[in-house]
Amino acid sequence: MSSIAHLFVAGGFVMYPLVIFLLFALMIGIERIVLYRKFTKDLRRFNKVLEKNQSWVMLPSILERDTLELGSLFARAIRSAKNYNSLENRLQDIVSYADERLKRGLSWLSMIVTMAPLLGLLGTVLGMIRAFAVVGGDIGAPTIITGGVSEALVATATGLTVAIIALGFHSYCAAKVNDSITTLEHECGNILDAYNEEHDI
C-alpha cells in the first residue's frame, strides 16, 4: 500500500481526476453490462412469445404477462396502432427508444478514453518540468532529474491504463448495443409479419 501511495503522489495532481475517471468507467461499464444482460433476457422471452402465440388479439396481453419492459412497450404500440403504417411507426419509436437507452453512458466512456491519456501526458510533462527545474549547480542534480522523470512517467502509465479499461468497456458495450438493436429490429419485423397475416395484407 505504501508503494501505491508513493506512486500516486509521484504522479502529481492529475492522479486525482484519473482515479475519478477510473471509478466512473468501472461504474458505467458494470451498470451497462447488467442492463445488457437484462435486455437480452427480455429479448429471449419476447421471441418465445412471438413464436408460440397464434392470436393477434391476445398478443398484447401475453407480451405484458410473459416479458419484462419490452412487453409493455410493444403491447401499447400494438393496441394504439390503427393500420400497418401506424404500427410500423410505433415499432420504430420503440427501436429508437431502446437504442438511446442502451447507448446511455457510452459518450462518457468515449470521453474518458480520450481524456485519460492526455491527462497522463500532462502529468508527465509537468513532472519533467519540475525535475529539470532543480538544475542549478547541485551535484546531485542528475540523480534528481532521472528520478523525477521516472516518477513523472507514472502519470502517463496511469492515464493509459484508465484509457485501456474504458476502451474495453466501450468496445464491449458498443458491440452489445448493435447486436441488441439488430435483434430488436428483427422482432419488429416478426410483429409486422404477424399483423399482415392477421389482416391478410
From TrEMBL:
- Signal peptide annotation: none
The record ties this protein, via Pfam families, to: MotA_ExbB
Give the primary localization class: membrane
Task: List the InterPro entries.
Answer: ExbB/TolQ_transport, MotA_ExbB_proton_chnl
Q: Which domain of life is it from?
A: Bacteria
Q: Does the keyword Transmembrane helix apply?
A: yes
GO cellular component terms given for this protein: plasma membrane
Q: Which UniProt keywords apply?
A: Cell membrane, Membrane, Protein transport, Transmembrane, Transmembrane helix, Transport
Where do the TM regions start and end? 6-35, 108-132, 152-175
A Gene Ontology biological process in which this protein takes part is: protein import
PANTHER family xref list: BIOPOLYMER TRANSPORT PROTEIN EXBB, PROTEIN TOLQ
Family, according to the entry, reads as follows:
Belongs to the exbB/tolQ family.
What is this protein's name? Answer: Transporter, MotA/TolQ/ExbB proton channel family protein
Q: Name the lineage.
A: Bacteria, Bacillati, Bacillota, Negativicutes, Veillonellales
